[in-house]
Amino acid sequence: MLIDKKHIGMKVPPHSVHLTAWQLKWFAKATGETNPIYFDEAAAQKAGLPGVLAPPTFFFCMDMDKEHPFDYLETMGCDLGKMLHGEQSFTYHKPVYSGDTLDFDGQVTDIYDKKNGALQFVVKDVKVSRQGELVCDVHSVMVIRA
Fold first, then answer.
1. Which of 1, 84, 100, 145 is the most buried (most CB within 10 A)?
2. What is the pLDDT of residues 15-39, one digit of tens each?
3. Three-state DSSP string of the chain
């Protein structure tokens, strides 16, 4: 069954995440980051930063830092057991640091299929802001196998 395109434009429930130095350190280590400004508060301060710098792909993970990160797909009737991560991309506007609180506001911007419906694609775009200032645009595509 194809995902109904009526869901294009559907808002994803917004959420906020307060960044801690511990979260950033964990993520930096998990991704193999070796620059200490991404995981060491003293190194970040020595570099003149207000806190530990968030690594570039951190926004995608923080967009999923909520109780039901795939609720929008469930609303569309998608079988999460058949979900694959397709792609992600980012447009960075401002750096973020430990101590910042980020607001995530997303929506489904496209739904399409390939291989006669065997693969369905759900595109989600999220605006990430800090105190009303846009810091990052997150674009992601989830693939659902039929």
1. 100
2. 999 999 999 999 999 999 999 999 9
3. CCCCHHHCCCEEEEEEEECCHHHHHHHHHHCCCCCHHHCCHHHHHHCCCCCCECCCCHHHHHHCCCCCCCHHHHHCCCCHHHEEEEEEEEEECCCCECCCEEEEEEEEEEEEEECCCCEEEEEEEEEEEECCEEEEEEEEEEEEEC
